[in-house]
Amino acid sequence: MLTARRRTAALAAAAMSGVLLLASCGGSDGGSGDGKTLRLWHYEGPESAMGVAWEAAIEEFEKTHPGVKVKFEEKGFEQIQKTAPMVLNSSDAPDLMEYNKGNATAGKLSQQGLLTDLTAEVTERGWDKKLSAGVRTTSQYDAGGVMGSGKWYGVPNYAEYTLVYYNKDLFKKYGIEEPTTFGELIAAMDKFVDEGVTPLANAGAEYIAQQYLYQLALSKADRAWVDTYELYKGRTDFHDAAWTYGAETFADWVDKGYLAKSTIGAKVEDAAVSFISGKSPILFSGSWWYGRFKAEAKFDWGTFLWPDTNLTLGSGGNLWVVPKAAKNKDLAYDFIDITMSEKIQNLLGNKGGVPVAADPAAITDPQAKQLIADFNSLSEKDGLAFYPDWPVPDFYNVLVSETQKLITGDAEPDAYLDALQDAYDKGAPKR
Amino acid sequence: MTTSVRTARTGRTVRTVRTAVSRYPVLLALVIAALFMVVPFLIVAVNAVKSPAEYSADGPLSLPDGLYLDGLKSFWERVDFGQKLINSFLISGAVAAGAVVLSVLNAYAIGIGRIRGRTWVLAFFVLANVLPQEALVYPVYYLSKEAGLYDTRLSVIIVFTVIQAAFGTYLLSAVLGRFPREIIEAARIDGANRWQVLWRIVVPVSRPTLGVLLVFFFIWTWNEFLLPLVMLISNDNQTVSVALGVLQGQRLMDATMTNAAALLGVLPAIVFFLVFQRTLTRGIAVGAVK
Fold first, then answer.
1. What is the predicted ipTM?
2. DSSP state of A102
């Protein structure tokens, strides 16, 4: 029954699976604490501002630490998000890695005891002096994992904030003055609507819509209001003057056609493409778009801060964290120190990032100069107000779906604010 | 048609007209279904060869002006794609081979050996099949860490061999349950022991079915994402589907490069399918011709 040919085939198959199994037995080379390798993970693209600056930092590090090799691995954002607690709890933890800031991420890991307390290094090496108050907020976490106070668990290299991107060519084409005040912005948008152009790029299915609304509320708010909302210092009332103004004005803007109702299902990527392709004259979003617009927009464009407000959305960027299980912590501290140096910070700025400790005079590109000057003026007046979805886990999805209802007119501003109050009260920690 | 009393000629005309009438809607439906399957793939292919600026200016549905292969090339270099291909082949190949062997052994005992309580054993395997992988993540992580296998390809091979074999056992048990008894009895009379019956009778006769299982196991394992994502931490150990995740940033996505990567990721599975396509159709047809 079993012919010779078949027997050889079966043998070959068995042998092959054996080889495959054997070959797969090779383990991973987890680092050792010999002070000779620095295992570094981050998830920034190689051409982004951070990617370029950190590449230069690795070179600098190897130059100043002869005999030490940096073993860098580029990770996916999702992989780090999903697996960080597991990796950091194993012997395969890297020595230094980039991690998302916030209560639900870095805060949680610090609470689980998976991160090294950096307080001593931070004060000794003077990193705290380089970071402004708003940026510092996301680096410190208290015993409950809530940001804003307590020990230092991370150090950000960059910051992010929201700003108005506008297409200068479109303003010129319709003969509209570039706005400097809120009143002029409204007037400009009215003119665009008269010309049959929807002035604001929007994405109802993602964060853009809620950020318009939060910014409108912020323009009537102050620092204490933000602390109440984001850091749970007091009771947040969604029917106060600021929130009410935000929701009502937003609904009014939809009625006036500043934002298209058809953008209710649009993704952030759609909003960006509608700006880059020259369809939408104005996009209000984060500094993280800057590099992409710089590379891809074929028209003349500029940026300015949201007019007539002391507060705008933004925070420190993602953090360098040192896992508790890291084996070469001293090398990790040295690396962070290099990334905070003026040289690397200036490079980050020139590549379109928002550095936290650059010399403004060393930034050569005029558009980048504007970006960084605006950030510095914002940070001087302590104007970073974080993001609306931060205080409560899963608040993001509530904000998206409720804001969509506001756009379609299914919910009145009053009902909208009721829904937010409900979700916030349920999810915010009691203190 | 067989009961028709019409002459042969008129009978044939009626038949042709009828089949033509009933065939075209089916054909149309098939074409539409095929379009639904192919269009997403085409969109991926078209965007894979566009430059990022072109994508941003004209959107995803426009045709590319020229062939822009930098996205493919830079993705290959950025993630060291050759290594990922080797890893994926290693893991999928070992899982496919191992799971088929395991399924045959299990199914032999359940389907032909008719062990006691086989319904319960089968129910257990079905249960293992419907268990969501999310529920497996933590136990598998913990066990592999205890066994010193965390972040090795072997851990993923073991886990998927078991998962795929659960399905294979379930399917093969049903197939072998209807295996012609006469053949087995004839072999036993000729003096074959159980082991010989398995390897010389059962396996050669059911080879087409085993071939299909092999192909399916390979492709399923190739496309697995969550467990490899969790278990394979070092970039050197990662599989193709995990490597694709590198491109999805926190706030920005590189649409054209993601498409290029998706194209690269799906090609090997398609090639594998085409190579083994004959086994596949034979295996499906084997039950029909009887």
1. 0.76
2. S
